[in-house]
């Protein structure tokens, strides 16, 4: 009997990843035989790890912190190709390997983070961001992946706030061409009280705040001025579980609607599943089961 096709999530650290569980649910739901494992890559060894895994028959993988930019470089190199959204983000979270007749392999890189976030906001939560003011916190791989898809929702303004302003400036430069097309104003600022306070005071707050930073991992609170989030606004942290708690408590205290990153996680996984298997699984039952699983552990 031929073994099932192999898939994986590659990261460092990776032991916390729920992706193997989610893809197992999707496989069962759609009647696909596959294996999906965690692969820990050394911090300086992403490309070597992928080459080794590919030689061992890996068909595709998700890529998580901190390798999304390495995955982008891999798929931009010889034998590689990128989706339009991954090229814009310059960050890749999904790789698909394709064998050629001469034994060489090609690699296709995509980024499903933005589609996952947008689907969670618009379909699962039923929230429209059209004409709204959005604050996006962070300018790492996740923020890069979601900025274009967020703009496509046609908010009137996206303020892009990052601790290292050079990174938000780079993201801004790459996306400024989209502004006119979507009728969105895009502004990069430093994620600091001194920069954000006048912005918040001018605008009277944001209707949505999306946290794509890892600040809570180092136990640091974000420097957000009072009334950053308007009452009733959406406050979404891409993290889930205890690391998301501080931000979600802040959202609740602001009178907003708190949302963790679990819905985004399941939706971006469904998008990756479709890229590999050509079928889109149902996400609602998997999200519900994942929430029950997390609550019980
Ligand atoms: P990166 O490491 O690429 O980026 C981290 C970001 O956090 C940077 O903008 C960094 O700012 C900022 N940051 C780190 N520490 C602090 C701090 N103390 N104060 C303020 N800002 C800080 O990570 P990713 O972008 O790949 O991931 C971000 C988060 O999103 C992760 O927790 C990840 O798990 C989550 N995520 C969730 C997904 C989901 O499906 N739910 C999908 C993708 C990501 P600076 O540039 O200044 O260093």
Question: What this model shows, in words?
Answer:
The protein has 297 residues and is an alpha/beta fold. α1 crosses α10 and α6 runs parallel beside α7. The mean pLDDT is 96. It binds NADPH dihydro-nicotinamide-adenine-dinucleotide phosphate (NDP).
Which key terms come to mind for this protein?
alpha/beta; 24% strand; binds NADPH dihydro-nicotinamide-adenine-dinucleotide phosphate; 43% helix; 12 strands
Secondary structure topology:
Elements lengths: L4 E7 L7 H12 L3 E7 L5 H10 L2 E6 L4 H9 L3 E3 L1 H6 L4 E6 L5 E6 L2 H12 L8 E5 L3 H11 L5 E6 L2 H18 L2 E6 L2 H11 L2 E6 L17 E9 L7 H9 L3 E3 L2 H16 L6 H13 L1
Parallel strand pairs: 1-2, 1-3, 4-6, 7-8, 7-10, 8-9, 10-11, 11-12
Antiparallel strand pairs: 3-5, 5-6
The structure holds NADPH dihydro-nicotinamide-adenine-dinucleotide phosphate.
The site of NADPH dihydro-nicotinamide-adenine-dinucleotide phosphate (NDP) has 28 residues, from helix 5, helix 6 and helix 10.
Give a quick rundown of the structure.
The protein is an alpha/beta fold. The protein has helices at 19-30, 46-55, 68-76, 84-89, 113-124, 141-151, 165-182, 193-203, 245-253, 262-277, 284-296, and strands spanning 5-11, 34-40, 58-63, 80-82, 94-99, 105-110, 133-137, 157-162, 185-190, 206-211, 229-237, 257-259.
| Ligand list | NADPH dihydro-nicotinamide-adenine-dinucleotide phosphate
- Distance between the amino and carboxyl termini: 36 Å
Radius of gyration: 19 Å
Global mean pLDDT: 96
């Amino acid at each position: 009997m031929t073994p099932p096709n192999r898939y994986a999530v590659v990261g460092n650290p990776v032991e916390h990843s729920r992706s193997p569980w989610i893809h197992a649910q999707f496989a069962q739901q759609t009647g696909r035989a596959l294996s999906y494992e965690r692969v820990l890559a050394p911090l300086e060894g992403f490309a070597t790890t992928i080459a080794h895994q590919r030689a061992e028959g890996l068909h595709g993988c998700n890529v998580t912190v901190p390798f999304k930019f390495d995955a982008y470089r891999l798929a931009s190199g010889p034998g590689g190709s990128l989706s339009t959204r991954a090229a814009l983000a310059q960050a890749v979270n999904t790789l698909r390997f394709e064998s050629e007749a001469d034994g060489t392999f090609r690699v296709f890189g995509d980024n499903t983070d933005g589609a996952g976030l947008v689907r969670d906001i618009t379909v699962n939560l039923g929230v429209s961001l059209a004409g709204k003011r959005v604050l996006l916190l962070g300018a790492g791989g996740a923020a890069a992946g979601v900025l274009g898809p967020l703009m496509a929702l046609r908010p009137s303004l996206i303020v892009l706030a990052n601790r290292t302003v050079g990174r938000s400036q780079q993201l801004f430069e790459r996306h400024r061409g989209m502004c006119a097309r979507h009728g969105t104003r895009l502004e990069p600022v430093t994620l600091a009280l001194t920069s954000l306070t006048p912005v918040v005071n001018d605008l009277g707050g944001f209707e949505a705040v999306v946290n794509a930073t890892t600040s809570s991992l180092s136990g640091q609170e974000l420097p957000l001025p009072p009334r950053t989030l308007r009452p009733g606004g959406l406050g979404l942290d891409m993290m889930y579980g205890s690391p998301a708690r501080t931000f979600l408590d802040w959202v609740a205290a602001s009178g907003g609607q708190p949302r963790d990153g679990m819905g985004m996680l399941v939706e971006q996984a469904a998008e990756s599943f479709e890229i590999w298997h050509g079928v889109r699984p149902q996400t609602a039952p998997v999200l519900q089961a994942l929430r029950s699983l997390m609550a019980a552990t």
